[in-house]
TrEMBL record:
<feature type="binding site">
    <location>
        <position position="119"/>
    </location>
    <ligand>
        <name>substrate</name>
    </ligand>
</feature>
<dbReference type="InterPro" id="IPR036043">
    <property type="entry name" value="Phosphoglycerate_kinase_sf"/>
</dbReference>
<feature type="binding site">
    <location>
        <position position="37"/>
    </location>
    <ligand>
        <name>substrate</name>
    </ligand>
</feature>
<keyword id="KW-0808">Transferase</keyword>
<feature type="binding site">
    <location>
        <position position="302"/>
    </location>
    <ligand>
        <name>ATP</name>
    </ligand>
</feature>
<feature type="binding site">
    <location>
        <begin position="359"/>
        <end position="362"/>
    </location>
    <ligand>
        <name>ATP</name>
    </ligand>
</feature>
<keyword id="KW-0067">ATP-binding</keyword>
<feature type="binding site">
    <location>
        <position position="333"/>
    </location>
    <ligand>
        <name>ATP</name>
    </ligand>
</feature>
<dbReference type="GO" id="GO:0005524">
    <property type="term" value="F:ATP binding"/>
</dbReference>
<feature type="binding site">
    <location>
        <begin position="22"/>
        <end position="24"/>
    </location>
    <ligand>
        <name>substrate</name>
    </ligand>
</feature>
<keyword id="KW-0418">Kinase</keyword>
<comment type="similarity">
    <text>Belongs to the phosphoglycerate kinase family.</text>
</comment>
<keyword id="KW-0963">Cytoplasm</keyword>
<feature type="binding site">
    <location>
        <position position="37"/>
    </location>
    <ligand>
        <name>(2R)-3-phosphoglycerate</name>
    </ligand>
</feature>
<dbReference type="GO" id="GO:0004618">
    <property type="term" value="F:phosphoglycerate kinase activity"/>
</dbReference>
<dbReference type="Pfam" id="PF00162">
    <property type="entry name" value="PGK"/>
</dbReference>
<keyword id="KW-0547">Nucleotide-binding</keyword>
Length: 403
């Protein structure tokens, strides 16, 4: 089955269209530090405006506790969206209800009403289907139809991702269509050698991905915060680095399955061990069997892959025909620990076949490190979503769109 596209909704002239986007952008001191997801949302918004619709835009931001929290307000996103949008963008302080209705009565076709962070209401992420459905009905009340385009959340069974889409005539937006097209090419018929590079800090989320990807990839290259659990599984001490201690046994199983399947799991051979978690922390490059031998001993924290590893990873990546990369190789937000991530990003730009970067922080990293989006085959707005797609899982937010 294929995704239902915007065309299936018929004429949108004069209608109110709810648009579920992923505008979950990184913020620092109340300002957006990477607006990639806002840009990625524009084609669908332009398409709907061209068809004469008013739009109610909805998104989550971060993980507030199911209640309003200034820190997670979409205010900064509203400001950026208004800078990029030719019509008006009216931000309301509620998620649904009277304020949304009255804002809608004040705007014209082609204008946007941006509701507040959906996760300010605990029912958005509730485990209880009835609660989610009740919330979705409130969201749906002012809408004629729904366009779902928040690719970064399609793996989450949440009210605005599933129940809202079921509540009204609905379709996928252009971003979801584009993402699915590229990822489907990776999933069904990748040119080989096919290398997947994993890193980042959502360790427990991502360790399971290793197992799921083993049957499909030729090489699995691993760095970032998740690597220390693998190094421990191989018997290395890792100081005070990020660790998922209860996963070590599971990971040992992955390592032996990889060798049975003939898949290379490529781990770093050296690590940049810092004396503390800070931008200016003194650090030492150490081989993986001596990570506690530096001045900070057991207190040292691995914040980046070392230069030998970075070079080795880059060679593997550049000589692959298909590469998918999710998760920074180190704490790239600190310049001193961005080298591994920069080396991997640079190698991806040299891939002769298809190179895909996935994940909010990974996409932010390549831009922060000075790369252009068009140096890569595709930059996916979804990290968890793209990984689950590549694993072959059924994603609830795509299933309701006919996928
Ligand atoms: P993505 O958003 O691309 O899916 P994640 O959210 O999993 O990636 O991880 C991104 C974060 O991982 C970054 O903020 C980065 O600082 C952090 N990170 C990378 N390597 C390490 C490490 N060795 N120790 C701690 N954090 C790390
Ligand atoms: Mg992230």
């Amino acid at each position: 089955m294929g995704l239902r596209g915007i065309d299936t909704l018929g004429s949108l002239e004069g209608l109110v269209v709810g648009v579920r986007l992923d505008l979950n952008t990184p913020l620092k001191d109340g300002e957006i530090t990477d607006d990639g997801r806002v840009h990625a949302a524009l084609p669908t918004l332009r398409e709907l405006a061209a068809r004469g619709a008013k739009m109610v835009v909805m998104s989550h931001l971060g993980r507030p506790d199911g209640k309003p929290d200034e820190k997670y307000s979409l205010a900064a996103v509203a400001k950026r969206l208004q800078e990029l949008w030719s019509g008006s963008v009216k931000a309301v302080s509620q998620v649904s209800g009277a304020e949304v209705q009255s804002a809608l009565s004040e705007v014209a076709a082609g204008d946007i009403v941006l509701v507040e962070n959906l996760r300010f209401d605990a029912r958005e992420t509730s485990k209880d289907t009835e609660e989610r459905r009740a919330f979705a009905e409130e969201l749906a009340a002012p809408l004629d139809c729904v366009v779902s385009d928040g690719f970064g959340v399609v793996h989450r069974p949440q009210a605005s991702v599933v129940e809202l889409v079921e509540a009204k005539p609905s379709s996928a937006g252009l971003l979801i269509e584009a993402e699915v097209k590229v990822l489907e090419a990776l999933r069904s018929n990748p040119e080989r050698p096919y290398t997947v590079v994993l890193g980042g800090s959502k360790v427990s989320d991502k360790l399971g991905v290793i197992d799921a990807l083993l049957p499909v990839v030729d090489k699995l290259v691993i760095g970032g915060g998740m690597v220390f659990t693998l190094l421990q599984a191989q018997g290395h001490a890792t100081g005070s680095s990020l660790l998922e201690a209860d996963q070590i046994e599971t990971v040992k199983g992955y390592l032996s399955r990889a060798s049975e399947l003939g898949v290379d799991i490529v781990l770093p051979t050296d690590i940049v061990m810092a004396e503390s978690f800070a931008a200016d922390a003194p650090s030492t490059v150490l081989p993986i069997d001596q990570l506690e031998s530096g001045p900070a001993g057991k207190n040292a924290i691995g914040l980046d892959i070392g230069p030998d590893s970075a070079q080795h990873f880059a060679e593997i990546i550049a000589s692959s025909r298909t590469v998918f990369w999710n998760g920074p190789m180190g704490v790239f937000e600190f310049d001193a620990f961005a080298h591994g991530t920069r080396a991997v990003a640079a190698a991806l730009t040299e891939v002769a076949g298809l190179s895909v970067v996935g994940g909010g922080d990974s996409a932010a990293a390549v831009r922060r490190l000075g790369f252009d989006d068009d140096q890569f085959g595709h930059i996916s707005t979804g990290g968890g979503a793209s990984l689950e797609f590549l694993e072959g899982k059924t994603l609830p937010g795509l299933k309701v769109l006919g996928w």
